[in-house]
Design a protein that fits this description.
It contains no helices and 53 strands. By secondary structure, the protein is mainly beta.
Length: about 600
């Protein structure tokens, strides 16, 4: 039978948790999370040594629970609350009650007074059996009441990079759900991390700063949901060996062949170290692979940059090789022009076209917009008639055994009546030049209204000049040899235009000649023989011939043109054959 209440016995109390974090002292109102794998204890200090005291907590179905047999502090008794005590219990507030309290004289105590501390004149003491001083008042323990919160949180977290190199760092994200209001305090514990502990008062945020790991190994990470004092743990999650720290791969690779035609398979071989476990290839043409040693073929010609990302449990490394693979497009490369380079014509002009494609095409398909005939399959079609004014496209499709390619030159042919009445003439200063020499091309126009627009075209290199002059010269340097088309189209103020075209031959040479000579004596007398010595240097084989030229004698006009001797000279030689001449009149003679 339940004994009298000992609510008049002076005492203090505290909670003691298995992890030692929660301390329940006087005037502290604790919040207890539903235990999952721990016990908790109530330790009470009475005003005198007690023989017996039993604990009752209604709502937890704890009635007349005997104290633990072990000894605590002076005048203390302790009770243990087990995990099963909380099964089926709802959240709420609970009050402790102590019953069947007897002192060492086996006197039952009832009705005790609880305050915030034991010392003080108001302490109720038993003077004799049933006699108390000062008198007591019956009330429950309202100082040490407590509440229980049953956490429904699904606690979880993640790291951006759970594997990393030594000295690396990562962020952690709290992804917990179903969080009870008022329980939004969190403690991170990072084994092996720097810093090792981080506190937060929010959800959904990244952990404070990056967490660094400076030593190799496998490390636990723990996230705890706690009370505002960070003393009570409502729930927690530990991911064991979650962070893995070590040496990342050193990515490297090779390929064979490095140069191939389109469609030829190329084998890529992984040469990475430190045991990668995954691979990601980027072949530079929009294609990729996750195989360790993939094969890949390219469908277009060009140079391709290849990237390999090799990853192990500690992280990735990337190797990039710029313009590593060269793919040859063996298909013909189409190009063309008119045979004379003229594309501005009058109606009913017959135009001849020449194929300038490379890579050996063997099939040609021409389309001539606005012309008759409007198609052709010969390599160099001729007599293509353009009867109507306008601007017209020309298309050429070329093929060989490797494939087909197409070129369309838009507005390539311009047919206009404006050329009637505008007379244009043109000429180069020479028909044959050496590479590197300046080609001078002169054009003239009559029957026009100034100002004029001259458009010179040096084999595809245009120059445009606006001038009122009826004659104008342009120059150009060809650095490659061959037969070069040159043309000029002149239009006037009234938009009349005409074109003149020609060509020059560019020959290869070995170098530049530095022409020089001397004569002796330097101040000859009348009739004296003068020896001229060739000192020209530079150049290389094949050698050109040189000759001497004397201009008119200013006094006698004799000789009108001195005989000249053509001699083959050798650069840098001092024994070049000299030439001897004399003058029969006084004067300065060039």
């Amino acid at each position: 039978m339940e004994g009298p209440s000992c609510n008049e016995t002076k005492y203090s109390a505290e909670w003691q948790w298995t992890d030692g974090n929660l301390v329940f002292s006087p005037n502290t109102y604790p919040v207890i999370a539903k235990p999952t794998s721990m016990w908790s204890r109530v330790i009470v200090t009475f005003s005198e040594e007690m023989q017996n005291a039993e604990l009752t907590i209604q709502g937890l179905d704890i009635y007349n629970r005997l104290p633990l047999p072990e000894t605590f502090g002076e005048n203390q008794k302790g009770w243990q609350l087990n995990i099963d005590d909380f099964n089926g219990v709802s959240s709420g507030e609970f009050t402790m009650e102590f019953v069947n309290c007897t002192d060492l004289a086996n006197t039952s105590l009832y009705g005790f007074n609880n305050t915030s501390s034991l010392p003080g004149a108001s302490i109720t003491k038993r003077q004799a059996n049933g006699v108390w001083s000062p008198s007591y008042s019956n009330h429950i323990d309202d100082i040490h009441s407590f509440s229980i919160v049953f956490s429904g949180t699904d606690i979880n977290f993640e790291a951006i990079n759970p594997g990393m190199p030594i000295g690396g760092s990562t962020y952690f994200h709290n992804t917990s759900t179903n969080i009870d209001p008022g329980t939004n305090w969190w403690k991170w514990e990072f084994e092996g991390g720097d810093p090792p502990v981080v506190y937060q008062e929010c959800i959904g945020a990244w952990s404070t700063g990056p967490i660094s790991y400076n030593n190799p190994g496998e490390f636990d990470v723990t996230l705890k949901q706690m009370d505002p004092s960070y003393e009570v743990v409502y729930t927690s999650l530990t991911k064991e060996k979650y962070i893995v720290v070590g040496n990342i791969p050193e990515a490297d690779f090779e390929a064979s062949p490095l140069e191939a035609n389109m469609g030829v398979p190329i084998i890529f071989s992984d040469l990475s170290t430190n045991n990668p476990i995954s691979w990601l290839w980027n072949f530079g043409d929009g294609s990729s692979s996750t195989a360790q040693n993939p094969s890949h073929s390219y469908s277009e010609g060009g140079e391709y940059t290849v990237v390999l990302k090799a990853t192990n449990q500690y992280g990735p490394d990337v190797e990039t090789k710029e313009d590593y693979i060269t793919i040859i497009d063996p298909r013909p490369l189409p190009d063309f022009n008119t045979s004379d380079g003229i594309t501005g014509i009058q109606p009913y002009t017959l135009v001849d076209f020449i194929d300038q494609s490379t890579n050996n095409p063997d099939v040609w398909q021409w389309a001539f917009e606005g012309a008759f005939p409007n198609t052709s399959t010969v390599q160099n079609p001729s007599n293509i008639n353009y009867p109507t004014t306008g601007v017209y496209d020309v298309t050429l499709i070329v093929s060989n055994e490797y494939g087909t390619r197409t070129i369309t030159k838009e507005n390539f042919i311009e047919v206009s009546n404006n050329a009637v009445g505008l007379a244009v003439d043109c000429w180069p200063d020479n028909s044959i030049y050496n590479t590197g020499e300046t080609v001078t091309f002169t054009a003239s126009v009559t029957n026009g209204t100034p100002p004029y627009t001259y458009v010179f075209n040096f084999n595809g290199s245009p120059q445009t000049i606006n001038t009122p002059a009826q004659i104008y010269s342009a120059s150009h340097v060809f650095n490659t040899s061959g037969n070069m088309a040159i043309s000029v189209t002149i239009s006037d103020y009234e938009d009349k235009s005409n074109t003149c075209a020609g060509s020059v031959t560019i020959d290869p040479i070995g170098g530049v000649h530095n022409v020089d000579f001397t004569w002796s004596p330097s101040t000859p007398v009348l009739g004296q023989d003068i020896t001229f010595q060739n000192l020209t240097t530079g150049g290389a084989e094949p050698y050109l011939q040189s000759y001497w030229e004397w201009f008119e004698d200013p006094n006698t006009g004799n000789p009108t043109w001195a005989p000249h001797s053509e001699i083959v000279w050798t650069p840098n030689a001092t024994l070049n054959p000299p030439f001897v001449a004399n003058y029969d009149e006084l004067g300065d003679c060039p």
